[in-house]
């Protein structure tokens, strides 16, 4: 069966980390991307999400520097080189592998968040915060009704927020806009607090969980890290039982 346009968009979307910094993404396009994001499913249609469109270069630099610093700690200090080589073993060319490792351990790979021309930075950064309270703060018709029945609010909020994120990344790809989901600057509680304060996010009720850079890619990129096929990730009826396509 041939892939249709939607499936082609899904398969061809790649994490873009090199942007034409001077080519802005118009508000109209950002609006369309966020609108598509909002069509994601959410438990009870709570829509437990808010997005801050960051265009201010100082704010981008602040968030980007946290990403760079954390990456240096994570890949430059805490992860042994053999482990990095093992993880990146899908990269065939030795020169590309060396370059990828270099930009990981030096943090250079995450400079793009700052939006600077010298590092091909993204002109726009979206910061996604989700409602961890689940008391209906985020959606007027449900306000004050949630939580009392013991629903798992925080987990649902993160799940729904992630679905919104993927919608936005795919909508962007369909419009020729490159994007990259990132979380390394929000993996540590201290960083979550600092970024919330800087952006005025009412933390801890609302928690920033992910960022999405947006911009026009310097080069088209459709090849990415390999994916496991359905035969590796799906089972039939019971864990461990192979799910094999009929006729195979
Ligand atoms: C939850 C999550 C966190 C991620 N964090 C980062 C990050 O901090 N920095 C980054 O550059 N990419 C980040 N990525 C992007 C992944 O590295 C990328 O999607 C993955 O390697 C697959 O590549 P592809 O998107 O090009 O197919 C993240 C993706 C997800 C879903």
Main attributes of the structure:
globular; 248 residues; alpha+beta; binds flavin mononucleotide; 4 strands; NADH Oxidase; 8 helices
Description:
The protein has 248 residues and is an alpha+beta fold. It has a single domain (5-233), classed as 3-Layer(aba) Sandwich (NADH Oxidase). 39% of the residues lie in helices and 12% in strands. It has helices at residues 5-12, 27-37, 57-78, 81-87, 94-105, 153-174, 189-199, 230-233, and strands at 49-54, 124-131, 178-182, 206-215. The chain has a four-stranded antiparallel sheet, sandwiched between helices. Helix 2 crosses helix 6. The radius of gyration is 20 Å and the shape is globular. The two termini are 13 Å apart. The relative contact order is 0.20. It binds flavin mononucleotide. Residues 14-15, 17, 110, 180-184, 224-225 line the site of flavin mononucleotide.
| Mean pLDDT level | 91
What is the H/E string?
A: HHEHHHEHEHEH
How many independent structural domains?
1
CATH uppermost class? Alpha Beta
Individual helix count: 8
N-to-C span: 13 Å
Determine the CATH superfamily: NADH Oxidase
Would you report the number of β strands?
A: 4
- Find the CATH topology: NADH Oxidase
Strand content: 5-15%
* Biggest β-sheet description: 4 strands, antiparallel
Which class do the helix and strand fractions yield?
Answer: alpha+beta
Contiguous low-pLDDT stretches (5 residues minimum) are none
Task: Name the overall outline.
Answer: globular
CATH architectural category: 3-Layer(aba) Sandwich
Q: Looking across the biggest beta sheet, what order are the strands in?
A: 1-2-4-3
Q: Ligands bound here? A: flavin mononucleotide
Helix fraction?
Answer: 25-40%
Radius of gyration: 20 Å
């Amino acid at each position: 069966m041939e892939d249709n346009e939607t499936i082609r968009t899904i398969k061809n979307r790649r994490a873009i980390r090199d942007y034409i910094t001077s080519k802005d993404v118009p508000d109209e396009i950002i609006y369309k991307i966020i609108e598509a994001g909002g069509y994601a499913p959410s438990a009870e249609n709570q829509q437990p999400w808010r997005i801050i469109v960051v265009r201010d270069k100082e704010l981008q630099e602040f968030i980007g520097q946290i990403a760079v610093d954390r990456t240096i700690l994570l890949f430059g200090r805490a992860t042994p080189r053999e482990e990095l080589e093992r993880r990146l073993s899908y990269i065939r060319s030795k020169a590309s592998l060396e370059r990828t490792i270099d930009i990981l351990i030096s943090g250079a790979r995450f400079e793009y968040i700052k939006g600077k021309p010298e590092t091909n930075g993204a002109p726009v950064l979206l910061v996604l915060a989700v409602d961890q309270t689940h008391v209906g703060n985020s959606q007027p018709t449900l306000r004050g009704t949630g939580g009392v029945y013991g629903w798992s609010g925080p987990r649902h909020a993160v799940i729904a927020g992630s679905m919104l994120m993927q919608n936005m990344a795919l909508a962007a790809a369909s419009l020729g806009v490159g994007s990259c989901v990132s979380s390394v600057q929000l993996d540590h509680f201290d960083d979550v607090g600092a970024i919330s304060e800087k952006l005025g996010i009412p933390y801890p009720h609302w928690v920033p969980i992910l960022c999405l850079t947006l911009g026009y890619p310097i080069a088209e990129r459709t090849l990415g890290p390999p994916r496991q096929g359905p035969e590796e990730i799906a089972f039939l009826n019971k864990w461990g039982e192979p799910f094999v396509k009929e006729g195979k």
